[in-house]
Design a protein that fits this description.
Largest sheet: 5 strands, parallel
Order of helices and strands: EHEHHHEHHEHHEH
Radius of gyration: 18 Å
Mean pLDDT: 89
Bound molecules: adenosine-5'-triphosphate, magnesium ion
Strand order of the largest sheet: 2-3-1-4-5
Low-confidence stretches: 224-235
CATH superfamily: P-loop containing nucleotide triphosphate hydrolases
Strand content: 5-15%
Length: about 240
């Protein structure tokens, strides 16, 4: 059976990742593609338990170092990849994931200054070759994204530990996401997230169609027996 496709959504707080995943999921369903929506940190029973420690600020309270925190993210990711992402793709279903390895590269690697060698080794261990086929980096001024996240929050709901950080820190991460996208142009597509929800959804759909749906159709037409389920490269530039 042909493997499903793996698409990740990245970017800062409140840029519209969750909104766009839902819209893409609807479009894929209309196109007859079964897809599974998941998120990080979390997405599997073990990883959801770790998510609470990471986002509540408990890891900080315990005095966990940024490297220690990166280890927790990696443990959660390994479980998520192993028990949710890979089995779903194997069934031929698509997986849409809200944050993945690039968030670790940016949040722990760039901003928290965890050694790049450690980030790389943990990434290799955790994703076990499962590089996304496509990654959308939703780009928006940090201030606008934080305001959106703030407005969305329900009364009485606290900001998580990342949302509590300064606008300058978020803007620094935004620039790091842009650099990452420029260094991985085949996989990572920058999307202007200041547009309307519908415009963004349309931009994303056009890319998904041309990169992941149309090429497969062309393959099938040319050779019904050809194997289009090629895995993405485990190592990228
Ligand atoms: N293009 C847009 N224009 C205006 N508002 C938007 C747009 N996209 C999303 N929103 C709104 O902004 C808020 C944040 O969107 P969403 O939750 O999808 O972002 P997110 O990236 O998932 O945030 P977080 O990082 O907090 O999970 C929501 O209230 C959503 O309705
Ligand atoms: Mg979200």
């Amino acid at each position: 059976m042909q493997q499903g496709k793996f698409i990740t959504f990245e970017g800062g707080e409140g840029v519209g990742k969750t909104t766009q995943i839902k819209l893409l999921s609807n479009r894929l369903k209309d196109a007859g593609i079964t897809c599974h929506h998941t998120r990080e940190p979390g997405g599997s029973a073990g990883a959801e338990a770790v998510r609470h420690v990471l986002l509540s600020g408990k890891a900080e309270e315990m005095g966990l170092s940024p490297a220690g925190e990166a280890l927790l993210f990696a443990a959660a990711r390994a479980d998520h990849v192993d028990t949710t992402i890979k089995p779903t793709l194997k069934k031929g279903h698509w997986v849409l994931c809200d944050r993945f390895m690039d968030s670790t590269r940016i949040y722990q690697g760039e901003a928290d200054n965890v050694a790049p060698e450690l980030i790389d080794s943990l990434e290799k261990l955790a994703i076990d070759g499962q590089v996304p086929h496509l990654t959308f980096i939703l780009d928006l001024r940090a201030e606008v994204g934080l305001n959106r996240a703030h407005e969305r929050r329900e009364e009485g709901e606290d900001a998580d530990r990342f949302e509590r950080e300064t606008v300058a820190t978020h803007e620094k991460r935004r620039q790091a996401f842009l650099r990452l996208a420029h260094n991985n142009p085949k996989r990572c597509k920058i999307i202007d997230a200041s547009q309307s929800i519908e415009e963004i959804s349309f931009d994303i759909w056009k890319i998904v169609e041309s990169e992941l749906i149309a090429p497969n159709k062309a393959d099938e037409e040319q050779s019904p027996t050809s194997d289009a389920s090629q895995q993405p490269q485990a190592k990228e530039g």
